Each structure stands twice: as structure tokens, then as C-alpha cells.
Amino acid sequence: MKRSNRLRLRLRELQMIARGLLSSKHVLLAHIIPIRRCNLACTYCNEYDDFSPPVPTEEMLRRIDCLPSLKTAIVTISGGQPLTHPEIETIIRRIRHHGMIAGIITNGYLVNPKKIAALNEAGLEHLQISIDNTQPDEVSMKSLKVLDKKLEYLAEFAEFAVNINSVIGGGIRNPEDAEIITRRAVELGFSNSLGIIHDHTGSVKPLTRREERVYREIRTYGKQSYARFDWFQDNLAHGKPNDWRCRAGARYLYICEDGLVHYCSRNSGYFAFRLCKNT
Q: Which helix (H) or strand (E) covers residue 106, if one does?
């Protein structure tokens, strides 16, 4: 079951990529927020609070129903912490009902066998967990020590694809943690990706010699995420410019909890127009 599901997902991803290359007149990815509240408080994050209620399910379903007319290929659910939404499975089912790829980004804290079974039944196709360190610290509790048992549950029970994202750069205390996290992801059969994060000023700096060694080592691991474009990330790692156009607001939509489309989470408030009319 797992193997057949993942082969079907890979085929759909390849079809999505092909369709995106053939035509630029549709949305490739919609990033939608069903709840702003999070059960953690990572100090670098600007995408959460500790009090917001979930968006009513009927309103979330209405917003998802607006995406097929834009020929949207993928819908990624995040937050806040999306698994705190009481009807997250209903939201996933609606995405799949429209034939769109359904993914979720979570900190993993609420993952357990019962929740995995519910996500399987709802038709979730992709789940990503970003793990920041091997031991929790004052910056982030998203550590391998805390989440390793959750990863084992996913390896055993999940029928959807799982990607583990690790990070370097931006003053990360121990860049070697990213290598340990990546190795564990590969051991469990997951795909892996690596994020180069900005520092406290919002700048992405070239990797240090120590970080560069970790970066090169991680690139040797298998089962990488289809989302990793090495040429782009190589330029970031070495402080070189990228010749590219940001397609936020066109091929990428960031839809906040109020149903407004923004350029991205870092530019919330800009380009804010309603996804659905008459609201």
C-alpha cells in the first residue's frame, strides 16, 4: 500500500511539473492557513500566535473550493500548527476531492498512530517536518531528541510521503546537527531537504567553511525532495546572486487565516486581496 501510494504521488508530481513547464497560466502551489495558533514558540518564527481560534471549517472548505478555477496543482496546509485544527482531515478530503495534491507542514508534536491513521484515511499525500537541532534549546524545541519517536510512527504507519527538512546558516549553533538529522531521515526511508536560513537581519550569508562541509556531506544522501533545486541553493550557499523572478501572487499564493492572498509569509499585508469574492 505504501509503495503504490507513493508511486502514484510521484507520478502526479511529475505531471504537475510538466504542466507547470508547459504553461504559466495557472497556480502551481497554494499555501493555506487554517489556524494561526501554535503549540510551540520558536523564537525565529513570525507565523504563529498562542490565542487565535481555528478558521471555521465551512469557511476553509469554501476557500478550497475557489482554488480549482485557478487550476491549482498543490495545496499545502500550514500555520501556526495545522494539526490543532479540529477538522483538519475534512479540509484534506476537500483538497483531494478537487484532484489537487494535499500536503501539510507540521512541527510533528501531535503526530501519533491514531492521527496518522486519520491522515491516511483523509488522503493526505505529503507531510513535512522541519527539525532544527538534535537537542532542544532556547531557540527551538523542534529537536530530533523530542521528535524521533514520532518519526518512527510515521515510518511504520504513514501511507503518505514524508520529508524531513534540516537547516544550516543564520547563526545555527551546531551545523553538524543537520547532518545527523538527515542521516536519521534516510535511515527511516524519508526524503530529505536542507534549508539555508537567513540571520537576524533577514540576510542570507555565504556559508562558513564549517557549514560548507556539512552542506556538501548532506548533498551525498539519497531520497532528496523533488523541491530541491541544487543550482539555486548552491548560489545561496556561496553568496552568489540568482537570476530569477518571484512568482508570488501568480504561480504561488499565500492565503492567510483571513482568506487574503499575500506575496508570502514574510510580506504579510502586501498584495492582500481576497481569494474568494463576496466575503
A: strand 101-106
